[in-house]
Amino acid sequence: MDKTSLQQKPLTLREEKLLDWDSVQTSFDKSFGNEIYTSWLKHISLLKEFNDHVILGVKTRFFRDWITSRYADKILNELKKHKISIKRIEFKIEPEISNSKSTFNSSIINKVSEIKNSALNYNRLNPSLNFENFIVGKSNNLGFLSAKKICSQLSRYNPLFIYGGVGLGKTHLLNSIGLELSQKNKVMFISAERFMYQFIKSIKKNEMVNFKDFFRKANVFIIDDIQFIRGKEGLQEEFFHTFNSLFDQSAQIVISSDRAPNKLDRVQDRIKSRLSGGLVVDIGAPDYDLKLNILKKKIVDYQNTFKENPDLNDDVINYIANNSNSNIRELIGIFNRVVAFGKMSKNSLSINDCKIILKDVYNANKVISIDKIQNVTSNFFSISLSDMLSPRRSRPLARPRQVAMYMAKKLTTRSLPEIGRKFANRDHTTVIHAVKTIEKLSENNDEMRKNIEELKSLILSD
Fold first, then answer.
1. Is there a single domain that holds both residue 158 and residue 279?
2. What is the CATH classification number for the domain harbouring 431?
3. How far is 232 from 266, CA to CA, in rounded Å?
């Protein structure tokens, strides 16, 4: 055969079975460790082998993506130990891999069922937390409209990220979305804490493959309190790939948090980028009108449930709505407290009654300034403010000064250096000494303990 004929003859890859796949699998086990091998590499099958590359079979797309992104280079290096001519590997999805080549047998199916049943224990939607029961106001209107919009147009905003403080209605909105979409979609509703629990449990039971497949089958994936993953690298890694898999499948993703995506410290930048890529809406603190409407709704609910009137007049309702600086959850708690006291006393409550009942609640919500503490303390001990802040160290001045520093530490959120600066630029170590001194005196001296209680009441009072 001449040179020309050789050049014209098409080149073909010659198949040959040279690799001993059982030996390769044994080397995988030793090189990667049993946990990775059992969870991932044990499920790989050898489909075709050529001179310079091999085609390996995996059962799912997720399997392929996970192995490719994490282990492909090391797999190639291991294969070269068995056949030096191999320069690359390819993965092919083979759903019908025989049971002899795959560990997806009846025992694995049983494990999937176990994961499913376990997850469903906290995947239940609350029927009462629906859109009809969600009271809309200026602070939550955008969140409400966004939630309704994705129910009519899936993946229009993906992901939908709702954030706000504790008790402002985020979980209510997420639950409402789940209820609305569950009729025609497979909805997964879970908290980030529960997601982590199931993640750890699956690792311990060597069920990670089943865990991953289970959480990627949802059409609608709703996860509450995503801030819980902060600082948890393994959980963040798993959430990132779950998010990507669901997003690629055009599944609707809904997430809630107590802060905006860019404020999630100790969270991977790539995750914050994904969370910011859809529609981000915040829920603010309720204004007077929203609080008033919520209280009126609670009265109607109380009447329907107990078939009696809670007997709260408009003045009392207005007082609660005006003076409550708390979130909606605590507002409902205040309502229940007032109603309970009213039923026990069997009298119609007045505003003065409410002031007594809710004194500790409203005092807890007061913002106390160091200036107020200094003024009240100096008056209490009958000294001038300038004397209390002066450099003089005589006992009649030093003790009230220490008490004021102690109160500033206990009743404000100011740091020790900030407190020191408010006391004529004293060092923070002086504040520490003052706090320890007054704490010790309060434990051993009845008069000091009494003075502290009286002073505290004066500072917290109007």
1. yes
2. 1.10.1750.10
3. 8
Q: Indicate if 243 and 309 belong to the same structural domain.
A: no
Q: Is the peptide bond before 159 cis (omega within 30 degrees of 0)?
A: yes
The amino acid at residue 289 is D
Residues 6+ away with beta carbon under 8 Å from 118: 198, 201
- 406 CB burial (10 A radius; 0-12, 13-18, 19+): buried
Contact 78, 24 (CB under 8 A): yes
330-338: Cβ within 8 A, 24+ apart: 330/167, 330/361, 331/286, 331/291, 331/294, 331/295, 332/294, 332/298, 334/358, 334/361, 335/295, 335/298, 337/361, 338/312
Does the pLDDT at position 2 exceed 80? no
HSE on the CB side for 461, CA within 13 Å? 8
Same domain, 255 and 300: no
Helices of type H across 40-140: 61-82, 106-120
Phi first, then psi, for residue 9 (nearest 5°) are -75, 125
d(CA 358, CA 316): 12
Partners of 256 in the β-ladder: 162
> Which among 175, 164, 183, 188 is positioned nearest to 252, based on CA atoms?
188
List the one residue out of 199, 201, 259, 202 whose CA is nearest residue 225: 259
| DSSP structural state of residue 158 | S
Q: Which two tokens stand for residue 222?
A: 């709703």
Alpha helix segments (H runs only) across 348-415: 351-357, 359-364, 370-380, 385-388, 395-411
d(CA 23, CA 29): 10
Which residue(s) pair with 92 in the sheet? 57
Can you tell me which residue has the tokens 């499913």? 116
**Measured CA distances, 80 to 4, 19, 139 (Å):** 35, 10, 62
Whichever domain contains 349, its CATH number is 1.10.8.60
Domain coverage including residue 331: 288-364
Report the C-alpha gap between 362 and 462 in whole angstroms. Answer: 11
Q: Could you give the CA distance from residue 383 to residue 392 in angstroms, rounded to a whole number?
A: 13
What was the pLDDT predicted at 16?
Answer: 46
Residue-wise pLDDT tens digits, 139-189: 899 999 999 999 988 878 899 999 988 888 999 999 999 999 988 888 899
> Cβ neighbours of residue 243 under 8 Å, at least 6 residues apart?
159, 253, 271, 274
- What CATH number did the domain enclosing 178 receive? 3.40.50.300
Contact status, residue 408 vs residue 414, Cβ threshold 8 Å:
yes
CA distance 448 to 403: 9
Give the up-direction half-sphere exposure of residue 119: CA atoms within 13 A in the CB hemisphere.
26
Q: What is the pTM of this model?
A: 0.57
381: helix, strand or coil: coil
